[in-house]
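Researcher: Re-running this chain for the archive, since the previous output was lost when a drive failed. Same request as before.
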Amino acid sequence: MMNAKRLSALFLAALMLALAACSESGGNADPAAAPENDALAPAVETEPETEKITAESTLSPEDFGGRDYRMISTNQDSRHVDIIAEELTGATLNDLVFNRNAKVSDLYNVTMSAEQADYGSINNMVKQDASSGDMSYDLYLTNYTAHPLGTGGYLYDFYKLPSVNLDMEWWDQNEKRDMTVMNKLFLAIGDISPTELLTSECMLFNKVLFTADAIAYPYDTALEGKWTFDTCFAIADGKTRDLNGDGEIKVDDDLFSITCWSDYPAAMLYGAGGDFSHVEPDGTVVLDIDLEKAVNIYTKIYNLLLGTEANYETAVHERSFKVFNEGRAYFCGITFQKIETFLRDMEDDYGVLPNPKYDEAQANYSTCVSGAGSMVVVPVSCTDPAFVGAMLEGMAALSYDMITPDLIDVLASTKNVRDEESSEIVQMIIRNRNFDTARMHDISIDGYVENQLRAKSQDVASYFAKNEKIWNKNCEKLNSNYAKLGE
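Model: Regenerated C-alpha cells:
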C-alpha cells in the first residue's frame, strides 16, 4: 500500500537528508568568513541527529523462545512469494521477503516455515479449523473469496485481535473503511502482502506505435487529471487494422486499438467512479444503484472496446497480453503483477497510465484492485490470539519498512515501467486504490459490464431491471448475516 500520507513522509525524509547534506558541506557560506584557530570564537551548536521513525519502532516484540511460526499462502499467480523465500537468489522480491522473514525471526525469536496451496484449499482449511477448534497455521493468506467465512461466523474479527493496530499505514486504510461492516472486519490486507499491491489494475501504451503515428505520450494529460474515456477513445479510434490484408481482423495476425482480458472492463468501470455501494454510519451496507450513471459509463466502455474493434479477449487469458507483447496493440489493460509475468521479454518500450476517468469533473483516478489479491484471515478458533496478533503486526510493520519502499522502486524501474514519468503514474495509481463493499462481498453488480460486452448488447436498462431485486435481496441478506454475528 502507498497513499499520499506515506509518500509525503518519504519525500519529507528525502528532503531532510538533502538539507542535512547541504548543512554538512557548508551550503553557500563563504569559507573565508569562518574564523580559523580562534579560541575566542563561539562554539557552533549543532542540532542532535533525530532518529528515523520506522514502523519497527512502534512494535513491542516479545521473545517467543524459538516457537514455530507456520504460514500458508495462495499460490495463484505466484503470490506465494509473499511469505516463501528460502534463500537469497538475486530476484528482487524474493530477496526482500527473505530479509524481512529473517528480521522477523530474529526480532521475535521464532522459527518460520511457509507453504503454498490454492485459495480454495486454504478457505476449506480455515473453515475446518474453525469448526474443529484447531489452527493448522498461524498466518493464512487467501483472497476475497473467503468473505462468506466471515459472515458465516468462521473468522476472527480483526478489531478484537490483540496487538493489531488497523489504524497504522501498513494496513490498507481504504480496504478497512470499505470492508468494515457493523464494526467488524474479517479480511485485512496491507504491506504484509507485497503482491497484493501488484494486483492494482492499470493501462499500458506502446511507445513505438505512438511514436510511429506521431501521437504524444499522454503523461502530462494523466498527471493533470485529464486522462478520460474520451481522450483515450480519440487515440484508439481507427487504430485496429488488418495487417496481412486477408480482409479479416484476427487476434494472431493484426493490429489492435486495445487488448485486454475479459475482467478488465470492470476495472474501467471502477476507474470511472462506478462504485455501487457504501457503508452507512450505522455500519450497514447500502446499494447505490444509479441506472443513468451505469448506462453512461457502460456506453463509454462499449465504444472504447467494441467500437474500436479492440481485442477484448474472452477465450485465452495469456493471448490478451501476447498481443501487446508482440507490439500489436496501442493499449493494454493489465495488473502490475501481470506486467512482470507476461511482458518481461517485450522488446517495445511502453508506458503506464491510470485507468481513464469518466470525465475531467471526476475528482480522482480510481484504481480497481483485483479480487484475487492476497488477504489475511484468522479462524475464529484461534488458539493463541496474542501470538497471532503480535506476529501479524510485526510482519506487516517490517514489510512496510523493508519491502514496500523497494517494491515501489521495482514497479517504477526501467525493468517494468521504463521511464520517470511512469514512476509518477505508478504512485498515483497506488494512492487511489478502491474497494467497493458490494463487489467484495460478491453482490456483483459490476458483472453487468462483462456480461453485456460478451453479448455485444447495449441494453443495460433491461439487465438492471432483471437483476436489481436480486441485488437488493443479497444486500439485505448480507446485512442480516452481519447483524446475527453480534447476537
